[in-house]
Amino acid sequence: MIQRFLDYIAIERRLSPLTVTTYSNDLRLFANFVERQSGVPFDATMVKSDDIRMWVLTLKNQGYGARNIARKISALRSFWRYLLKMGLVSDNPTTKIITPKFSKPLPTTFREQEVERALEYNDDADDYRQVFDSLVVDMLYQTGMRRAELLSLTLPRITLNGHGGELKVIGKRNKERIIPFGAELEQRILHYLTVRRDLGASSDGSFLVRANGEAATAYDIYRAVKQSMATSSTQTKLSPHVLRHTFASTLLNNGADINAVKALLGHANLNATQIYTHVTFEEKLKAYKQAHPHAGEE
């Protein structure tokens, strides 16, 4: 049943491979727990609410945090909703499970000057890896794309017009959105394409390729960001998603309409975007306290 559900979310719901893997890990972890407790192969029709409560308690005792446990419970809820929809079970044991509360931390962001320094470092590079790394950082920073969206980008989905261009991005739930960009990123893309052409890479395949011409991987994107930003940022978290956070915060800090930012990020609802308004407020408050002569007065 678990594999059938995973096939469903991968093929019909078109969730990202990373999301499907996360669901798989959480569901199989639960199934293994139930098997150890019962001594028989996992059967979703036999699972009771108490089984899930016992698993949650075990996870807490093993040191899992509230956020991690909440995600695992969410995976179970999705799984049993699917089973009910398909008529494979008659009862949903997750309805009686209370999800643990947790506070959402504010997104981590880079300072604008940190990103600029990282890009300046590679601006005149002709080495393929340096050209690749600076392009990855700049595209994530100037477009706010997710790592998976950047990896799935193909050349036909990129339009250049001499003073900028636009990207046709396939996001979550296979939804397409258009992201504009300026002349600076266009020049970086053109430089990359020149170097890429020398590799003999396909003109209709993946936009991002390795030095051997093969399609880039999620690890290549992560490595590019980590190595580039490590030279200019004091942040401990150096991931592609931090550049997405930085993109959103930069736009809002400079007066962009929150609905426009929502559309550019591909968020399904405004609540997901509003977290960045808290980030920009925190940044402004910090700047005020550092710069205003009376900020520390009671």
Break the fold down into its secondary structure elements and pairings.
Elements: H1 2-12, H2 17-38, H3 49-61, H4 66-85, H5 112-122, H6 128-143, H7 147-151, E1 158-160, E2 164-170, E3 176-182, H8 183-197, H9 218-230, H10 240-253, H11 258-265, H12 270-291
Helix pairs in contact: 1-2, 5-6, 6-8, 6-9, 6-10, 10-12, 11-12
Summarize the structure in words.
By secondary structure, this protein is mainly α. The protein has 2 domains: 2-96, Tyrosine recombinase, N-terminal domain (DNA polymerase, domain 1), CATH 1.10.150.130; 112-290, Intergrase catalytic core (hpI Integrase, Chain A), CATH 1.10.443.10. The chain is 57% helix and 6% strand. The protein has 12 helices and 3 strands; from the N terminus they run αααααααβββααααα. It has a 3-stranded antiparallel beta sheet. α1 runs antiparallel to α2 and α6 (128-143) crosses α10. It is globular, with a radius of gyration of 23 Å. It starts with a helix and ends in a 7-residue tail after the last helix. 26% of the residues are buried. The model has no long low-confidence stretch (mean pLDDT 87).
Give a short synopsis of this structure:
By secondary structure, the protein is mostly helical. It has helices at residues 2-12, 17-38, 49-61, 66-85, 112-122, 128-143, 147-151, 183-197, 218-230, 240-253, 258-265, 270-291, and strands at residues 158-160, 164-170, 176-182. It contains 12 helices and 3 strands, in the order αααααααβββααααα.
